[in-house]
Design goal:
Quinone Oxidoreductase, Chain A, domain 1, Rossmann fold, 2 domains, seven-stranded mixed beta sheet
């Protein structure tokens, strides 16, 4: 089968012919219909976040159709429409038993630690597979498995409550889901922070109040819009020290800043003024949980999460096209989410 793979960091991905993966008794083979291109994939290609072993087929946002199922699989059958939880876990370690499987001691992420969805087929354990409702497209199903799921987890980690005000820093793939999901969870007002006019316009269509960070410091604008109070929840989805700092500076008393953007760089915090005196919190956000996916799929089924305008472009399973999309992400370019159609 064809697969687009990372051969070595800081080099373009390459197309390779590799065998169709074999499945075990409790596994399924999925024929990929859509694979989202995530900003994390750009980090993997750049070597910012380590991928091993190499070569590796990237792609952790995957939706498709069951091709074959192992003899021990009873809840899935060929031709079922499915989407994939990207963490392959042991199911029995202390973290899995506690419902915190993103920290599984034997866990492996598809597209990072085992072959992912930039391919014609992918094999995964059946427990990582969720039925995709008929009303949700393969494109949306794929994108939901990372960008929407991580945004959902970030809002839940930040303990978003009905009536809270929210600032979303970065309204790309994750941020556009965060805006909609914040409203679905009861947010009274959502501020969308970005420098891209098209993204700000789309976020406004979803009900957010746009804040153009090219005009003035975003935290200053958030505080002005909230009459100096700040927001209850700030979600940072870009991975820049500047925006992480602004997320913290935008918090109200007892506000929570959930940081999901990937960076190795530090940022300054004034502990007394920005945290202690406000009893504010900085919360790290790592991936998401399998138990959150049924809730997320139900919100999409009910129309509370609409990704029809978030997927802005589709491309073939071709190395040149995928590398170009990753280049665009590196430059924080136009568009929101690109999806591969093998």
């Amino acid at each position: 089968m064809k697969a687009v793979r990372l051969i070595e960091p800081q080099r373009p991905l390459q197309m390779q012919e590799i065998p169709v993966p074999e499945i075990g008794v409790n596994d399924v083979l999925v024929r990929v219909q859509a694979a989202g291109i995530c900003h994390s994939d750009a980090h993997y290609r750049a070597g910012t976040s380590r991928v091993e072993p190499l070569p590796m087929t990237l792609g952790h946002e995957v939706a498709g159709v069951i091709e074959t199922a192992g003899d021990g699989v009873t809840h899935l059958k060929p031709d079922d429409r499915v989407c994939l939880h990207y963490m392959i876990t042991c199911g029995h370690c202390v973290y899995c038993n506690a419902g915190q499987e993103q920290f599984c001691t034997g866990g492996a992420m598809i597209g990072k630690h085992r072959d992912g969805g930039y391919a014609e087929y992918i094999a995964v354990p059946a427990r990582s597979v969720f039925n995709l409702p008929a009303g949700i497209s393969f494109d949306a199903g794929a994108v939901m498995m990372c960008s929407s799921a991580t945004a959902f987890h970030a809002l839940r980690k930040a303990r978003l409550a009905a009536g809270d005000t929210v600032a979303v820093f970065g309204v790309g793939g994750l941020g556009m889901s965060a805006v909609q999901l914040a409203f679905a969870l009861g947010a009274a007002c959502v501020y969308a922070v970005d420098i891209n006019p098209a993204r700000l316009a789309l976020a406004q269509k979803y009900g957010a109040q746009p804040i153009d960070a090219t005009f003035e410091d975003a935290a200053i604008q958030v505080r002005r819009r909230t009459w100096g109070r700040g927001v209850d929840v700030a979600v940072e989805l870009i991975g820049l020290p500047q925006t992480m700092r602004q997320a913290v500076q935008s918090l109200a008393i007892q506000g929570r800043a959930a940081l999901a953007g990937i960076t190795q760089k530090s940022f300054d915090v004034r502990p007394y003024d920005e945290l202690i005196n406000r009893e504010a919190e900085i919360i790290g956000v790592s991936d998401h949980l399998a138990q959150e996916l049924p809730m997320l799929l139900e919100l999409a089924k009910l129309g509370r999460l609409d990704l029809s305008q978030v997927v802005t472009r589709s491309i073939p399973l071709a190395a040149d096209a995928i590398n170009a999309a990753l280049d665009n992400l590196d430059q924080f370019g136009e568009g929101v989410r690109v999806v591969i159609h093998p």
